[in-house]
Design goal:
The structure holds two protein chains of two kinds. Chain A is built from nine helices and no strands. Chain A has helices at 5-33, 42-52, 57-79, 88-126, 129-135, 140-177, 183-193, 196-222, 227-258. The radius of gyration of chain A is 22 Å and the shape is globular. The N and C termini of chain A lie far apart (50 Å). By secondary structure, chain B is α/β, with parallel strands linked by helices. Chain B folds into two domains: 1-76 and 155-248, P-loop containing nucleotide triphosphate hydrolases (Rossmann fold), CATH 3.40.50.300; 91-154. In chain B, strands 6-7-8-3-9-10 form a six-stranded mixed sheet, with helices on both faces. A four-stranded antiparallel sheet of chain B has the order 2-1-4-5, with helices on one face. The two termini of chain B are 33 Å apart. The chains are: A mainly alpha, B alpha/beta. Chains A and B meet through helix 5 of A and helix 2 and strand 6 of B.
Amino acid sequence: MNVTAPLAAIGRPTLALMALVGRVVIYASQTLSHLFRPPFYGREFLQALVHIGWLSLPVVGMTALFTGGALALQIYAGGARFNAEAVVPSIVAIGMTRELGPVLGGLMVAARVASSIAAEIGTMKVTEQIDALVTLSTNPMKYLTLPRVLAATLAVPVLVGVGDAIGIMGGYLVGITRLDFNAAAYLKNTADFLETWDVVSGLIKGAAFGFIVALMGCFYGMNSGRGAQGVGKATKSAVVAASILILAANYALTEVFFSA
Amino acid sequence: MIKLDNVKKSFGNNHVLRGVNLEIPTGESMVIIGGSGTGKSVALKCVLGLVTPDSGLITVDGQDVTKGDRDAFLARFGMLFQGGALFDSLSVWQNVAFRLLRGSLKRPKNEAREIAIEKLRRVGLKPDVADKFPAELSGGMQKRVGLARAIAAEPEIIFFDEPTTGLDPIMSGVINDLIREIVVEMGATAMAITHDMTSVRAIADKVAMLHDGVIKWTGPVADMDNSGDPYLDQFIHGRAEGPIEAVR
């Protein structure tokens, strides 16, 4: 047996991963390089804003509502072990704004938006619509990628903000109906312990996650293989990559924002 | 004049173009024929810059296609894609007027719509098609819309990629006639790729046969039947026996 075989088995996927990272970085920098260079496609940007922002609101809102409610139940049950049930409002608020709002919101947008962008652009690629764009003197990066990436980067923080409020409301509803909290006391506790930075840090995370979601959708769509199988693979890869990058970026940003 | 000089292109170990030499004089209609997978589409895409050749030189009117203002270069071209390549999210008239709604050729919306409807009429479609979406149209209608889009900005050079693939014989005839009429009417240089011999006879001034990555034969369409070239003879008569392997 060749003694270098195990090393080669590690080396090949490592090199492939590095090459993929390099291609994504180049793609991201090419996208950003078009930010200040005309022409700009305002109509495509507004359409992306509606698709990514407005139409994701129900799914992000429902996710936040149920998460806030479950969080209140969990914190109450856990807090009861050392007579700390009163922390429910503040922990729900901090948990939603710092972590669960942006992360779960980002993951839901990844599932909904990265998949649809990758499938749409992938289908355009295999049906030669991307080539048609080029022959019609239109840069696909400007026309397809930049509007989506920009829209997601701006829309996801707004979704996270709305999700935070709905999540806190979910905790509040469970708190006053199931856990016998006083409504006014619950709201006062929430407001007293919540700091501006808790909310702002979550919104910054939301912007980063929005950028990741749209970038992965566009990248894998543009690099889609042939046929239905190629588009399917591109769609799956976009969602997986966006989800993993969101979780990794969340850790990195939490480390930057909150490590002592 | 479009000139390909020793153009080579490989994808991994697949050497698609092995040194293509071809000249298409201005105002002439050249049809490249050849079996599936022989690199016809790659050659066409190399001219447009959609595929970058590994080596060789492609010039249009003496200008290297890889140099100079890309937008100005592409503005001289119109292209009909094999599957139409219409944008699903845009209505028919917005597809046809795509180039007229943005970029250097931008016109007011109403004017662009009028031109689109006029071009649709030119390819035999009624104005009520204008507000439909591509998915609502039959294959033949989509091909016509693609043709209308290709000619919308009055290009000097028009490319046709398998213009009759997937169409019934009657619709193929209609599209062939339209292509011929439009090319003559506009005085455009045309380059088409196909393996439909009816199409070749209908739209070509000259024919080039691409096989094994090189041009095996080129000449006027009238000389095609008496070329004496075994590759061309086998291809145009659709024989399984001959120098071209039937199983590729």
